[in-house]
Every structure is written in C-alpha cells, then in structure tokens.
Amino acid sequence: MERGHPVKLGKNERMSFAQIEEVQQMPNLIEIQKNSYRWFLTDGLKEVFRDISTIKDYTGNLVLDFIDYRLEETPKYTVEECKERDATYNAPLKVRARLLNKETGEIKEQEIFMGDFPLMTDSGTFVINGAERVIISQLVRSPGVYFDETRDKSGKKLFSATVIPNRGAWLEYETDTNDIFYVRIDKNRKMPVTVFLRALGLGTNAQIIDLFGEDDRILATLEKDSTTNEEEGLLETYRKLRPGEPPTVDSAKTHLNNLFFDARRYDLSRFGRYKYNKKLSLVPRIYEKTLMRDVIDERTGELLASKGEVISRELGDRIAQSGVSVVYLDVNEKEVKVISNGMVDIKDYISFDPAEADINEKVCFKVLCEILDSAKNKETQKEMIIARRDELIPKHVTIDDIMASINYLCDIANDVGVTDDIDHLGNRRIRSVGELLQNQFRIGFARMERNIRERMTLQAQETETITPQALINIRPVVASIKEFFGSSPLSQFMDQTNPLAELTHKRRLSALGPGGLSRDRASFEVRDVHYSHYGRMCPIETPEGPNIGLISYLATFARINEYGFIEAPYRRIDKEKGVVTEEVVYMTADVEDEYVVAQANEPIAEDGKFARNRVLCRVLDQIVEVPRNQVDLMDVSPRQLVSVAT
C-alpha cells in the first residue's frame, strides 16, 4: 500500500498520497487581486499624481501642485457592518495641495478631501452598497511593436508592422506587391513612409539612404514619393491627417508633436516600453549572424568585434551595452544594416544602485551620455538622472524608436528578425484591479483638471481669497470611481455558490470589456488554446456558448509579474551534473520558448538524474524525445497545467 507523507498547506499540515513529490508549495491563490490593489495604493496613485502634479492657469500666474496623498487607515464601518447597512467599505482619501501665486509670491497649502475610496477586504473583494463585488482581471494585447507576414495572390511575401501604445495614435507600416513601403497614422489614409520620414527631419533622399542603407524597399518608395524636402513632407503628412484644413508647416509640426511626442497624449506605458526595447534591441537580431564590418565603441574607440566574426550571445550583449546602435551583417553575401533604438542597461555606467533613482528599465543612451559627460561626481549624477528620468525612459515613442521599427521591417525581408504571433501569451498581458482602477482614476483626474483651469480663469481677479479648496471640485473623480465599480463589465457580483466558486471568480481572466475584444468580432484564433497557455492559463476551464475561449482561468501555480505578463514555474536542471535541482525559476512565455522542458511525471533516479536516457519534452508547440543531457527545465507539478477548479 502507498504510504502518505505530510504536506504543509498554509498553516495546516495534511497527508498527501501523491506519487510525485512537489518541490513548490501552492501559492496564495488570491494574490493576483491583493498584490495588484496593494500596488495601486503604493505606486499607482503616486503615478497619477506625478503625471498631473502641476496645473497652471492659461496666463501661467496661478500654479496648483499636488504634493502628497494619504488613505486613512480606519474605515467608517467594518465589512460586516457595511453588509448590514448596505454601505460601501471605504476610507477617505486626503491630498495635500499647494497654490502658488507668481505675482505676489504667496503660497497657500491645504489638505483636501478627495472622496471616499473603496477598500479591498482580506478576501480580495470589495463591498459596494452592501454587496460583495469582484473586479476580474482583463487579458489584453500588450502595447509594443508587432510584425506580421502575409502572401499576396502571386505568393510574394508582404510585411506589415503595428506600433500599439497604451494611449494615443497607432502607427502602421505595410509593404505592397511592388515593394513600396507605406505608413498609416491613426487609421488614416496611407502614404509612402519616406513622406513621414521627411516630416520627422530626414529631408533629402541622401539623408534617408544614408540612414537606412540601399534597401530595395526604401529605394522603390523614394521613386514613388512626390515630396523632396522636410517642408513638403510636413505639408503632405498634414493633408493626409487633416484633410480639408489648410496646411501650414507650423501646424503640421505641432500636430505631429502632439500625436507622438507629447507624454500626455501618447503613452507607451512601462510594459509597452519594455516590450518595445526587447523587440528592437540588437541582441536577438544579430545573434548567430556574421559581421560585414568591424564594430567599434564610439565612446572609447575600442574594437568590439571584427568583420567576419559570428556573434555569440555574450558578444551581442557587449555590443548592445556599449551603446552601439548600428551593426552591418553579412546575410547571404548581402550587406544588411541593423539599427537599434539606442537603449542600454544603466547598471554598467553608474556606481550606485539605479533603484535609488527609481530606474529599473533600460535607458536612452544619448541622454545618459549627456548626463555622464556633464556630471562631475556621483551625487550630481544621481540628481541629474532623477531630474531627467522622463527623458531617460521616455513614455512616448522617440524618433530613434520609429527609425528602428522601420529598419526592422526592412530587415525581416532579408531574414533578420522574426514576425510575431499575436495569440502568444508573451504578447498578451493582464490588467488587474490596480491598473483598471488607476486608469479610471486618471480619467476622473483629467476631467477635474479641466474644471480647475476654468475656475482659475474665472477667479483670476480674486487672488487674495482664492484657495486650493475653492478651486478643486472632486465630483468628476468620485463619479468615475463610482461608475467603474457600479457599471463596468469587469466589476461583477461575487459568485457565492460555494467557496470554490468564490475562489475561481477571483482568478477569472476576461478578454472582453473596455479596451478588449467584443464577443461578436472575436475570431477562432483568439479563442483557441495556444501552446504558450501551458502552466499559465487552464486549457480546460472555459464557459460553453458565445464566451468560449474569451473567459479563462489562471493556472494553479501561475503568477503575474510586474509588467502584467503571466509566469509559470519550472525546476532548473544543472546541465554540468545532469541533476534536476530543487531551484524554481518563474518564466514568461516568450522566455520559455528558448528552452527544452520535461514533464513533472518524468521518473528521476535516486541520484537526482533522469532515470531514462531519452526524455519526452516540450519545445515550443512540439512534443519531442531528446537525450537527457539536452533538457533545460522540468515542470514543478502535474497540476500546474490546470486551474484550481479543474
């Protein structure tokens, strides 16, 4: 008879009769809700106040700043009292506001009540008007840049790309049968990409060819292009974007700036910037390729790699980290120019921890060089990095980003770079309760900001009596939060049939809702089970009927990382010794694609090695049998494939 062994489940100890011992304990199953709300209270609100911290009137005389905020710890009623009284479980949000009158130099400071903010209960729910509600997480396409390949009737490859921001105008590129390269801005009429490049500052044909090299698509597009300089490019772009309005160079420049380079109107967001940098960095594009020219570090003049050298992962990292943004490759005896968007990891350039300056992303190399050249010591460096954080990690796209994305599309035709699968979980992310609330709060704040400006203008004469309290009307903020909890399709009455129904409701993922898909237009591909769902989303539990595949559930051991991508746990295998270790690593779907993964029920001998010489493994969407020394990772548990209720 099979002997049981004790297993710890939270504070309880139970006997398990499982044949496979699990190295990883089950995680806290409602942490998806609680972590997200905690992030909102600590960082999410702070981001909103930082984005809209300074409000000036139209003359620039009155300036209103939001300095700090606090959510009072003690709610008016307990959760039980709220249910009895049909009340909302909330706590008051207080904000410190400072009003500066530049003419008189007078400063008035006040603490202002910003409305009652719903609190999350210990079980991951909200009590709204006495009823328990759950905010379900939304599965959406991540902001970033995506490349695609199709074939026309004659079988010729056509390429397209889309730059998707979190908020703002879409940028779409496409090539046609004659190799002419078009751009479409915010779903408007398409125009040759060289017209757009001229509008961005590359006025002459020589400048365009100098940047992109003699690429067939760029040369074919230049022949089609009727404009010849920057002014003509700006006017033609404006005509396409605003047909019917008389175009002028100034209005075209202002309009382009507002569309792409104004952080208030265009927001790539942290996760969009992370995906963008990952896609357009040099390393994955030049890995295992041969160099056509020497690569030289521009700052030191050091030779990093010689012509004819095949690039390894380490060398690729070194080249990218040195700030080199252009590399020439030899692909089938043809020179291919690869341009990156010029972002580097700041750790190698400074002597302190970048987290002290609130930086945990790659930064713009050009801006970093300016700071390093002008800062004399460590303290000045840190101050300048904090002051110029928005330039180091731009929230909007930069001209370098646009050039790199156009170059990537040209390179794909020359077999450098890969196209993207939009249904892959590396390209879809989770918007949890914290982020949904932050977006709602931002909408309310933007409405309030317009109100404040109007009041400043109306009360401009009464500068002595004007106070922050008199300017701020909190109604728009309160209304947008109420509206979200009351009528958003993602805010639902909690399913209280039994404890399991409650738990699975909190772990539900929906592709529907604002900013998501609509049930009528969702294709079979979106609803289908994808190989990247393994260990992240349950392939079994989904409703029958019109929502099939659009509502899904988080897998048992899955967790969500700081960028909103779902991670699955794996046991690392020591390749030198061939031993399956107990070290557990969490991976997103796009990282896992590079590894060979064994199943959890693969027999392991007493010495910790695989018992069989050939092991059944997963590689991408293939099931293959490989020698045991080629396996990289192993599943943590056979249960990690399915959800809690399956």
Taking all Cα atoms into account, the compactness measure Rg is 28 Å
Name of the CATH class of the domain at 51-130 and 430-488 = Alpha Beta
Content-based structural category: alpha+beta
Low-confidence stretches: none
3D shape: globular
Distance between the termini: 27 Å
User: Got a strand count?
Assistant: 32
Largest sheet, in brief, is: 7 strands, mixed
State which percent range the strand residues make up.
Answer: 25-35%
Please give the structural blueprint.
Blueprint: E1 5-9, E2 12-16, H1 31-51, E3 54-56, E4 62-71, H2 79-85, E5 90-101, E6 106-118, E7 126-128, E8 131-135, E9 137-141, E10 144-151, E11 157-164, E12 171-175, E13 181-185, E14 191-192, H3 193-199, H4 205-212, H5 216-224, H6 230-241, H7 249-260, H8 269-280, H9 282-286, E15 290-291, E16 295-296, E17 303-305, H10 313-321, E18 326-331, E19 334-339, E20 343-344, E21 363-364, H11 365-374, H12 378-387, H13 389-392, H14 399-412, E22 428-431, H15 433-458, H16 468-471, H17 475-487, E23 491-493, H18 499-506, E24 508-510, H19 524-527, E25 551-553, E26 559-560, E27 566-574, E28 579-588, H20 589-592, E29 597-598, E30 614-619, E31 622-627, E32 633-635
Helix pairs in contact: 1-15, 3-6, 6-7, 15-17
